[in-house]
Amino acid sequence: MKLTSKISRIAICISVLAIILSLISAIGILSNIIHNRNQNRSYDLSKYISAVKIHNEKEFAAALSKYNDVDILAEGTLEAVDTVTYNGVPGVYSQIKVDNQTYNRHYSGSIISYSWDTTSTEFIHSKEIRFLGQIYPYGTIPFSEPKDNGAVYPNVNGWFYGDTRHEIYTSPTNEKGVLYATIKNKKLSTQNFSQIILLLMTF
Question: Against a cut of 0.85, is the pTM above it?
Answer without folding.
Answer: no
